[in-house]
Amino acid sequence: MTTPRKLHIKSYGCQMNVYDAQRMVDTLAPEGFVETASAEDADLVILNTCHIREKASEKVYSELGRLRTAKDEAARNGREMRIAVAGCVAQAEGSEIIRRAPVVDVVVGPQSYHHLPQLLAKAKIDGRAIETEFPIEDKFAALPDPKPAVIRARGISSFVTVQEGCDKFCTFCVVPYTRGMEVSRPVARIIDDVKRLADNGVREITLIGQNVNAFHGEGDDGKPWSLGKLLYRLADIRGIVRLRYSTSHPRDVDDALIEAHRDIPAVMPFVHLPVQSGSDRILEAMNRKHTAADYARTVERFRKVREDIAFSSDFIVGFPGETEEDFLATLALVRQIGYAGAYSFKYSPRPGTPAADMRETVTTGLDKTAVMDERLARLQDLIDSQQAAFNKAAIGKTVDVLFERAARNPGQIVGRTAYLQPAHVVASPDIIGQVLPVTIDSLERYSLIGKLAGHTPIAASRSQPAMTTGA
Ligand code: SAH
Ligand code: SF4
Ligand code: F3S
User: What percent of the chain has pLDDT over 90?
Assistant: First the structure.
């Protein structure tokens, strides 16, 4: 028997990268690789990279600097360490990565992970292997399915990819270039994945995609299915008690999705719906193709069918040309909507995107970075106060929690509410995998602390009490 080889994967960026990292582990397992927590003693280190902002992509090079030392050290001990760069920086920069960092052996783009074993073999012979081309046309059509059925269950909650890529071409964003055009998986494959995960103990599925509600995978009737229609089908699978999806585009919210929220108890009333800005002028320059009022109307459509629904969002401050007035429109929209939480970012010009060439008119006389920092802080203060109010509103209520695992504190079990808030109770580990009502007593930082309100397992829950977003 050969000794297992050790594999260390470090993932940056979005949920798709987290999912892809698991896929790489599963692809390399038959090659004798087992995961290790430390890069230093690994035989293969994979950096699964993100290109979305400059900071994210530059992290890769500082990490590669550190890995060079580890690789040299391994070589001195007569051990060979291989280094692969995967993900969106690999796709965007290709062989440029090896030019900048000769320590790298393999560069592999997000569409080619199933070739990793061959690429590693090639690197052994040729010294280097690079594969970052998009396979043309349907990324999911080629066999074996590159988002494959081999994905293993890991706990109670699991991601399943339903679509990849994006055709929206927001002017600031690299995703259409790194992940390519929008492609959906066939419904039958998704159902197979969800069934198998459910059989292996998974209770909650988050359907993921860069633009998940653009989903239009082929159904068993040969017609394209919408995300809403898919949710109805998945809700029937035994064992699945919670369904989520991320990330949605406000333009692709159709009636079927709204109806799924109205009709299906398992579809959680928490939607990540990035808006980016509250200024129509900036939204247009971003090529978002909707106004702030369109967005607010979309939120109302959800709220009409599910009054307890809550939203999170992404924002960019300091987009080229953003004035104080534009920024105030963003703050006004945040106040109008009232979020359970949101991510906000300083605009980062990305090579090859249209916004990178847009003229800056923002700053007359002031330092642009200082203006961006100040706007980011104001926006984050507002979002933080909304999030704190939202979390505080849970105290004293009884809410459904899906229990996931033993907590760090002995005797405690941790799960999540419908709104992904972590909730801790003292209970037996038997409750893991069940949705149970919990009476919330207090809030410790972002975690809710409570007591089990009853011991009867609930298969699927709808009876979440309304929570106001306390704007
Ligand atoms: N597909 C999703 C998210 C894509 S990336 C969507 O359409 O919303 C995640 C977030 O990163 C974006 O929502 C945006 O807020 C942020 N982002 C993307 N490009 C950026 C850039 N060039 N500078 C700063 N933030 C950016
Ligand atoms: Fe990027 Fe826009 Fe596509 Fe989202 S919708 S991935 S922000 S191009
Ligand atoms: Fe980053 Fe690529 Fe995801 S750029 S956000 S890892 S799609």
Answer: 80
Closest ligand to C-alpha of residue 342 is: 1
Q: Report the distance separating Cα 164 and Cα 202, nearest Å.
A: 22
114 lines ligand 3 (CB under 6 A): no
Residue of 438, 455, 449, 442 whose CA lies nearest to 412: 449
Burial annotation 441-470 (CB, 10 A radius, 16+ → b, else e): eebeeeebbbebbeeeebebbeebeebebe
Find the 54 Cα to ligand 3 centroid distance in Å: 12
Task: Tell how far the Cα of 17 is from the centroid of ligand 2, in angstroms.
Answer: 16
CATH of the domain at 220: 3.30.750.210
The answer to whether residue 181 sits within a structural domain is: yes
Q: Based on the domain organization, do 290 and 380 belong to the same domain?
A: yes
Give residue 380 CA to ligand 3 midpoint distance, Å: 22
Domain residues for the domain of 347 are 272-392
Q: Assess whether the C-beta atom of 295 lies below 6 angstroms from ligand 1.
A: no
pTM: 0.91
- The model's pLDDT over 430-462, given as tens digits with 9 standing for 90+, comes to 999 999 999 999 999 889 999 999 654 444 444
- Domain assignment present for residue 140? The answer is no
Tell me the average pLDDT across 61-77: 94
Burial of 325: CB neighbours in 10 Å, binned 0-12, 13-18, 19+ = exposed
Is 461 part of a structural domain of the chain?
no
Take atom 3 of ligand 3 and give the residue whose Cα is closest: 14
User: pLDDT at position 454, please?
Assistant: 67
Find, among 441, 375, 451, the residue nearest to 412 by Cα.
Answer: 451
Residue after which a domain boundary falls, among 206, 240, 268: 268
Question: How confident is the model over 120-149, as a mean pLDDT?
Answer: 63
Q: In this structure, what CATH number is given to the domain that contains residue 76?
A: 3.40.50.12160
